[in-house]
Amino acid sequence: MTELVIDDASIEILKKELLKCDASALRIFIGGGGCCKRFEIVMVKKALTGDVTFKHGELRIFVEKEIALRSSKIEITNDEHKGLLINLTQ
Question: How big is the CA angle at 55 (ends 24 and 14), to the nearest 5 degrees?
Fold first, then answer.
């Protein structure tokens, strides 16, 4: 079972973005292509088929199935210089 950990600063940022985008959840997925793949977060209203749903307090987070299957822990943190960071533990 994959564990989802979000620090308090990230929770506040994500809540504000959800309100701003009029969305009900966020989705974490693998974006980019070729050798430049990266994790991305978008505000959404519903999950895509196969997404794994997490609930963290008031936040609903949909995670692309491939990420959830390959990770034992997903951690979202806020770096004041880099913004939100997604770290995975396998």
Answer: 50
Q: How far is CA 79 from CA 9, 53, 86, in A?
A: 9, 25, 11
Burial of 16 (0-12, 13-18, 19+ CB in 10 A): exposed
Task: Give the per-residue pLDDT at 43.
Answer: 94
pLDDT tens profile 51-65: 999 998 889 999 999
Per-residue CA distances from 90 to 11, 49, 65, 68, 69 (Å): 23, 23, 14, 10, 9
Please tell me whether the overall predicted TM-score, pTM, comes out greater than 0.85 for this model. Answer: yes
Fold of domain 3-89: Hypothetical Protein Aq_1857; Chain: A; (2.60.300)
Residue-range domain boundaries for the chain = 3-89
Q: How far, CA to CA in Å, does 57 sit from each of 50, 60, 65, 73, 87?
A: 22, 8, 21, 17, 20
